[in-house]
Amino acid sequence: xxxxxxxxxxxxxxxxxxxxxxxxxxxxxxxxxxxxxxxxxxxxxxxxxxxxxxxxxxxxxxxxxxxxxxxxxxxxxxxxxxxxxxxxxxxxxxxxxxxxxxxxxxxxxxxxxxxxxxxxxxxxxxxxxxxxxxxxxxxxxxxxxxxxxxxxxxxxxxxxxxxxxxxxxxxxxxxxxxxxxxxxxxxxxxxxxxxxxxxxxxxxxxxxxxxxxxxxxxxxxxxxxxxxxxxxxxxxxxxxxxxxxxxxxxxxxxxxxxxxxxxxxxxxxxxxxxxxxxxxxxxxxxxxxxxxxxxxxxxxxxxxxxxxxxxxxxxxxxxxxxxxxxxxxxxxxxxxxxxxxxxxxxxxxxxxxxxxxxxxxxxxxxxxxxxxxxxxxxxxxxxxxxxxxxxxxxxxxxxxxxxxxxxxxx
Length: 410
Description:
Distance between the termini: 31 Å
CATH topology of the largest domain: Growth Hormone, Chain: A
CATH superfamily of the largest domain: MFS general substrate transporter like domains
Protein name: Permease
Number of strands: 0
Membrane topology: Multi-pass membrane protein
Number of domains: 2
GO molecular function, one term: transmembrane transporter activity
Keywords: Cell membrane, Membrane, Transmembrane, Transmembrane helix, Transport
CATH architecture of the largest domain: Up-down Bundle
Largest sheet: none
Domain Major facilitator superfamily (MFS) profile: 6-396
């Protein structure tokens, strides 16, 4: 249990922060809608994050790799806490957008830094179990968060919900204060400080070099990011598709979302208990195939029942695939370059999401929404098949072994 003391503490901080995130997500949408009565203004909330990530991630990775990850996490958590706490005091929509830009900027540093810090903190033999429990914590926040938000809106106000999110970020920062400093020996030389453009150029060269050395890892993970982009596009049309095409009521849609969360929770519980018996390859293969099958069932649904079946399947097996791919990434990407690699992958992922959403909007004027969702789900399933074919090649077994197993096989 002693070896799990720090991971449990970190998971506790992640859980509280995640809970606040889901409360805030609903609250900020309602606040903007209340202030502007504009759907376009609300849509702007979803565009800010990816755009800031694109503008930030192409250079932030080198700063993260050379910097103190724990300090970066603490500072960005406090920046988000203060920025969120200021929002209820603002009366202008543009000033709120400015705070959201600052929050997105902090998140652009926090996300890759946390990936690297977690990989360094968690021993390789514990990563699969940690990632499965992390999925469990996040799914719990997904289910409980909206319920807390609803209760807060009923008995208090949107402002209180936003302040709770600010508290969750501050609490997360306090938890990180208790975590060990894993980068005490890292120092930035004077030449690195003065030749920023050369460092940036070298960072991109290093990432390209890493890509060439680990071509298979990047291929599999890039295909996985491709499925995320496809599912993101389908999820963005979820409300319209379920209500306008399938014909569900708002109550049925809310129930459908809750069922998805419960499915993810059940999948996470199963994986957390069975992580020692399931290989990384099995988690990825089973998870990605059945999750994509769930999306196909959903895309072909004409009734509430079939939509529930599809959402339940994709919810359960999303937990499998996310645990498998996260562990695969942590075990094969060099820790000393993880910040740069994660950030640069984030540039392409966010750019693709923005372009893809605009493209889907254009196609919506030509084809029916059902046709678009069906085509997306089929392409998603096709990518899942390619991933499954690649990972089960016998000559690629080494990439899916635990680090201790790799040492024994060499």
